[in-house]
Amino acid sequence: MLSKSSLCAIAAAAVLCDGAAAAVAGGKHDACRKTTVAVLGGGMAGITAAQALHNSSISDFVIIEHQGQVGGRAHHTTFGKQKDGSPYTIELGANWIQGLGKPGGPENPVWTFSKKYKLKNTFSNYSSILTYNETGLADFSHLLDVYETAADEMNVEAGRLLAENQQDQSARSGLSLAGWNPKHSDMAAQAVEYWSWDWETAFPPEQSSMIFGAAGDNLTFNQFSDENNLVVDPRGYSAIIDGEAATFLKKDDKRLLLNTKVVNVSHSDHGVTVHNADGSCVSAAYAICTFSLGVLQNDVVSWEPALPLWKETSIQKFGMGTYTKIFFQFNETFWPADTQYFLYASPTQRGYWALWQSLSTPGFLPGSNIIFATVTNDESYRIEQLTDEEAKREGLAVLRRMFPDRHVPEPVAFTYPRWTKTEWSYGSYSNWPVGTTLEMHQNLRANVGRLWFAGEATSAEYFGFLHGAWFEGREAGEQIAGLLQNRCVTIYNGTKTCGARPHYADLHGTSPLQHYNLLNGWATSSFYASKRKREM
Ligand SMILES: Cc1cc2nc3c(=O)[nH]c(=O)nc-3n(C[C@H](O)[C@H](O)[C@H](O)COP(=O)(O)OP(=O)(O)OC[C@H]3O[C@@H](n4cnc5c(N)ncnc54)[C@H](O)[C@@H]3O)c2cc1C
Ligand SMILES: *[C@@H]1O[C@H](CO)[C@@H](O)[C@H](O)[C@H]1NC(C)=O
Ligand SMILES: *[C@@H]1O[C@H](CO)[C@@H](O)[C@H](O)[C@H]1NC(C)=O
Ligand SMILES: *[C@@H]1O[C@H](CO)[C@@H](O)[C@H](O)[C@H]1NC(C)=O
Ligand SMILES: *[C@@H]1O[C@H](CO)[C@@H](O)[C@H](O)[C@H]1NC(C)=O
Ligand SMILES: *[C@@H]1O[C@H](CO)[C@@H](O)[C@H](O)[C@H]1NC(C)=O
Ligand SMILES: *[C@@H]1O[C@H](CO)[C@@H](O)[C@H](O)[C@H]1NC(C)=O
Ligand SMILES: *[C@@H]1O[C@H](CO)[C@@H](O)[C@H](O)[C@H]1NC(C)=O
């Protein structure tokens, strides 16, 4: 462990040694606890960032976490009863390891961790699916292949648009052009689309970038592998984050502040002071904020001074999706126990209780009689407003339509999370919106002076995934270590970087201004031109 003075010796940039650097932003808060790096949030990104600091011999950091444990959106609870009376563990948040790794190819770091910690997980077989409508079993599974063919074609076209730096489209237009263009009244096709698109991104194709949606899918499922394994570990998925935290944090480590909610952050080019709801504060030379995009969008934290427009715009532009798993335990498994997935096409409403997934199936929690529904986005918002009893009634009515020949009893246990109202998350994970450039995304990642950002949403390649949070946490931690030690750092693909991250205060349109003319149907260009002049 390095003392502060030995750190000063390393820190030739002298950020720590030019007087009260760590306390700069808090000149009037001399009572604040001093540290070199404040890590805001103890999810995958925060724990990884702190570990990267530790790996670079920077031990003077403080992790500030709202909840009573680390793990963030890798979040489980106990549910129902096993035969011996003890409860099951279910994942309310992250559940799959998405993209594992191929021999000789790069491996998803989360897959590496799952092996290191012997996380119990099972191959999730997306071909093990039966389709239903309001009359019961209704085989429209051939549409799954029709969708897949179109999606593959869209991904190739998205690759062309990306490589040629052409304007983005929506996944909706991309799919339609590739031959998947279902009518709003074709409820079977709508259900297939919900399963194939919304279930992954938590947004409909209309609200998703074609280029970055396809690229993200490729980077995870073509680069690592196309397998998804579902975690069913009694310790919870967060066991891998607990395990990594334990490699550098002692039990009751004073550098981990649990049950501490950050409310105010004052920041400057010299340092950051963090104020917590309990009245405590921490002054640091640097801070890494890993709060979810939902937290940033919902004004949980007040920034002093306010974040610059380029940063605030990127925060408000990216999408925070909601993905809701609704759990039922019954006294028996009345659905086909050897099938993993059941897709329901509501006759009136896209996405209405569309997806059901059995945990009672071999390899998962056999004999548990647990099945859960998943809804996203608008259906999540609607169901989150219901009481447990109302939601349970709706779900049971759907199950009774799907299995008209079976007796569907009252469940013995029922629960679901309200992610949209969870004040340490405000939603589930981010999504790349239509027509949004890499520069706009970079603004989400870029630092504002001494205030840095990391997390699932700041990953251009793996947004939405636990492994995205890991890569981003590592990179931010390594870059700040480089700043503190006055050296450049090699980021993971071999590129060297030193100092601040770039940001783009001006994000340009894609049609040259001179094309705003009458021939293109634009009669008022002179109005805008003169207005612009007046403002300048
Ligand atoms: C329902 C759901 C399903 C998902 N499914 C998958 C999946 O199957 N596979 C997959 O790879 N990914 C999945 N994800 C995404 C994955 O969980 C996230 O990408 C990842 O956990 C994000 O890690 P993070 O460190 O960026 O953010 P977080 O885990 O959100 O960490 C941020 C931390 O900051 C804390 N915090 C927030 N506000 C404050 C505050 N004001 N003061 C102090 N602390 C605060 C939070 O408590 C949290 O611990 C899912 C997420 C959800 C919600
Ligand atoms: C820190 O070092 C350990 C040991 O080499 C390694 O397992 C871990 O992945 C490193 N962490 C980061 C964030 O690079
Ligand atoms: C997945 O399920 C399908 C349909 O039941 C089956 O044919 C296939 O063998 C399964 N794949 C694996 C790897 O279990
Ligand atoms: C539901 O499926 C049944 C059986 O395949 C079919 O006869 C019926 O037309 C379907 N309903 C709708 C609304 O498509
Ligand atoms: C996705 O992968 C396919 C097949 O490898 C490739 O042709 C395409 O360019 C990729 N698209 C994107 C957006 O990365
Ligand atoms: C946080 O900032 C707000 C607005 O600036 C202020 O009213 C509040 O007292 C501050 N809270 C703390 C704990 O500093
Ligand atoms: C489950 O409970 C129902 C009553 O709700 C009952 O009819 C049924 O026999 C029970 N099944 C088992 C396996 O105990
Ligand atoms: C990452 O590395 C590849 C080559 O391995 C290179 O082509 C690419 O430009 C690099 N990306 C960045 C962002 O530097």
TrEMBL record:
Coiled-coil ranges per UniProt: none
GO molecular function terms listed in the Swiss-Prot or TrEMBL record: oxidoreductase activity
Enzyme Commission (EC) number: 1.4.3.-
Keywords: FAD, Flavoprotein, Oxidoreductase, Signal
Gene3D superfamilies xrefs: 3.90.660.10, FAD/NAD(P)-binding domain
Cofactors, names only: FAD
One GO process term, biological-process aspect: polyamine catabolic process
Sequence positions that bind FAD: V262
Keyword Oxidoreductase annotated: yes
The family this protein is said to belong to: Belongs to the flavin monoamine oxidase family.
Full protein name: Amine oxidase
GN (gene name): MPAO
